[in-house]
Amino acid sequence: MARNKFDVDEELEQEFNWSHYKRLAQYVKPYKSPILKALFVIILANVAGMLGPYFTKIAIDEVIPQGNLTLLMQLSVFFLISLLVIGWCMRYRIYAITEIGQDILKDMRYSIFEHLQRLPFSYFDNRPHGKILIRVVNYINTLSDLLSNGLINLISDIFNVIITLVFMFFIDVKLTLYSLLLLPILFVMVMVIKNKQRKAYQVLSNKQSNLNAYIHESISGIKITQSFAREEENYQIFNEVSEEYRTSWMKAVKVQFLLWPGVQNISVMTTCLIYFVGIRQLGVDVTTGTLIAFIGYINNFWNPVINIGNFYNSLITATAYLERIFETMDEVPDIQDEPDAQILPSIKGTVDFEHVTFRYEEGKNILNDVSFHISQGQSIALVGPTGAGKTTIINLLSRFYDVNEGSVKVDGFDVREVTLSSLRTQMGVMLQDTFVFSGTILDNIRYGKLDATEEEVIEAAKVVRAHEFIKDLKDGYHTVVEERGSTLSAGQRQLISFARALLADPKILILDEATSSIDTKTEELLQEGLQQLLKGRTSFIIAHRLSTIKNSSQIFYVEGGRIAEAGTHDELMAQRGLYHHLYQSQYDLLQVTD
Ligand SMILES: Nc1ncnc2c1ncn2[C@@H]1O[C@H](COP(=O)(O)OP(=O)(O)OP(=O)(O)O)[C@@H](O)[C@H]1O
Predict the structure, then answer these.
(1) How close is the Cα of 288 to the center of ligand 1, in Å?
(2) Which of 110, 384, 425, 553 is the most buried (most CB within 10 A)?
(3) pLDDT for 190-245, tens place per residue?
(4) Which atom of ligand 1 is nearest to the CA of 393?
């Protein structure tokens, strides 16, 4: 898929087909038994509801003319019982179907979330996160009514129509046939509106998604917005996106509600027709009781027909959202375990890049035929200009992306041939954008090793010199931090991520700009701890501050999609090439600032 911006409508990569409903049915299947129970109760209510008009007919046509008071009393008691049964059934039905609907939604939400967790970086690179979020929350919620009330009501309404028809045919065949006369008009209307409605809702879902993406982006970037005083500009953009949403909503609703008045009119016309035919035939072959009962049954018949029409309407509406939901679930993770992937045994930590060529996008190679060998326990520093491809190298090592040519090997195993989890659990990665999750500091450090004891967490924090600031916090390690760690300084967030990477006790440690926000004094202390910790482990360190990587076993200067220079600090300085130039310029800068 092409990259997508908040104001660009997403293309539908997969057209809707009826099998989507089959898939939806798979989510309904586990709830067969509670659905059947609810259905039974609903049918019971329907049958009880049918008895009312029938009792009225008997009372008017037979019991009252005979003046049989006892029978009239008995009929009244039955009528009352039928009303009580209906009341209880309704109560049960509301609770049961809401529960079933919510359970199904929960399962669907789980499926989509579980799938999202496995999708590769490239999926998230290509779309605004707000557009992903809306699928998991809002789109799934739109199915709520369809799956709770809609589904069960549909079955109950179908039963209702059938039972009513049986009663109607039983009482008067001719009047029943008149009642069905206008039904075909309804079918024609539904067919005509269907496609228009689906298209209108597809547009609506797109506009909803755009609005969500913009709000998400605006909240994420609020600090920058306020620092640049861009609020006015943003109001305007928001207004435009919001107006598009409003317009598409109005269009969709206009189409959707074409059906409703149509159905109402047909039902009123049918009632008029029955009065007309019934009154003309009164005393010929229609009794007063029959006519009154029939008017009751007409309502019993048309109400569920209207409901079925509405269900169909919701189904068409939901289709636009279902397409998006299943499209996300069908997204094939291009980074996933091969069918014959093996578990990477406990590694020593050798790494080989063999003729690696890589590009994020067609036509723009980021790495070109890169090869190197790293022995167990070596520390490798990756330096070079911004955008040269340093992070890309470590992304390939963790298999966040796959190489286009060549191979990346860990202990001789091609990373594509082992399971992702066995590979990644043996690596401690600290990425450039340090992320702190909402929860306690303890939880955050423990993130990659859930069974770590508090002592182990503290130990890791001490090594990276995070302990000093954590112990001074209000609740120490149990202090709750917000998502993204907004209450911590950038350096503190880095120290926490550092401790998190170390705690996992990885054989290969990857540190991308791990110390860029840490003051030089803390960094010196941290380096001491780190030196002990790096012993016996292979490590990749990306750093712009060259003073921090001078002691590395090897330094790679990455530029122009290749490793332009490689060697120890002393060797590279002696070469007087690119590294020397970079080092010298940093050194000069330091002299000037001093
Ligand atoms: N997800 C992505 N999709 C497309 N291009 C990308 C993506 N990530 C990085 N790039 C591009 O790949 C190139 C290398 O990026 P990389 O992050 O590896 O650079 P770097 O050397 O780590 O830079 P820095 O020192 O600034 O962190 C850059 O030109 C960047 O624009």
Answers:
(1) 84
(2) 384
(3) 788 877 888 888 888 889 889 989 998 898 888 888 888 888 899 999 999 999 99
(4) 18
Query: 573: Cβ–Cβ under 8 A, 6 or more apart, which residues?
Result: 579, 580, 583
Query: What is the three-class DSSP state of 8?
Result: coil
Tokens of 308: 């079925």
CA dihedral sign, ordered 116, 122, 371, 381: negative
Q: Identify which of 176, 136, 202, 447 has the alpha carbon closest to the alpha carbon of residue 298.
A: 176
CA–centroid distance, residue 434 to ligand 1 (Å) = 16
Domain ranges of the chain: 23-329
Probe target for ligand 1 pocket from 357, 361, 364, 390, with the most ligand atoms within 8 Å of CB: 390
Nearest CA-CA partner of 509 in 462, 464, 466: 464
Q: Is 550 helix (H, G, I), strand (E, B) or coil?
A: coil
Locate the ligand 1 atom nearest the alpha carbon of residue 121 and give its number: 1
**CA 366 / ligand 1 centre spacing (Å):** 8
Number of C-alpha atoms within 13 angstroms, CB side, residue 177?
2
464-490 burial, b if ≥16 CB within 10 A, otherwise e?
bbbbebbeebeeebeeebeeebeebee
- Rounded Cα–Cα distance for residues 445 and 458 (Å): 9
- Could you identify the atom of ligand 1 that is nearest to the CA of residue 385? 25
Torsion of CA 193, 195, 200, 201, to 10 degrees: 100
Q: Give the mean model confidence (pLDDT) for residues 497-513.
A: 85
CA 504-510-513 angle, to 5 degrees, is 120
Q: At what angle do helices 69-118 and 19-28 cross, to 10 degrees?
A: 110
Helix ranges (H only) for 464-519 are 467-471, 490-503
The residue whose C-alpha atom lies closest to atom 29 belonging to ligand 1 is 387
Residue type, 360: Y
- Substitution candidate for ligand 1 out of 1, 368, 391 with most atoms within 8 A of CB: 391
* Chain segment 28-45, per-residue pLDDT in tens: 999 999 988 988 888 888
How many A from CA of 151 to the centre of ligand 1? 49
Output the six-digit token pair for 68: 């049989």
Nearest to 51 by CA among 164, 157, 153, 156: 164
ipTM rounded to 2 decimals = 0.97
Question: From ligand 1's centre to the CA of 388, what distance in Å?
Answer: 7
Residue 14 has pLDDT above 60, yes or no: no
Question: 390: CA distance to ligand 1 center in Å?
Answer: 8
Give the helix ranges, DSSP H, for 221-287: 222-227, 231-256, 259-281
Q: Is the confidence at residue 587, as pLDDT, over 80?
A: no
CATH number of 23-329: 1.20.1560.10
Question: CA 342 to CA 479: how far, in whole Å?
Answer: 40
Ligand 1: does its nearest atom lie under 6 Å from the Cβ of 366? yes
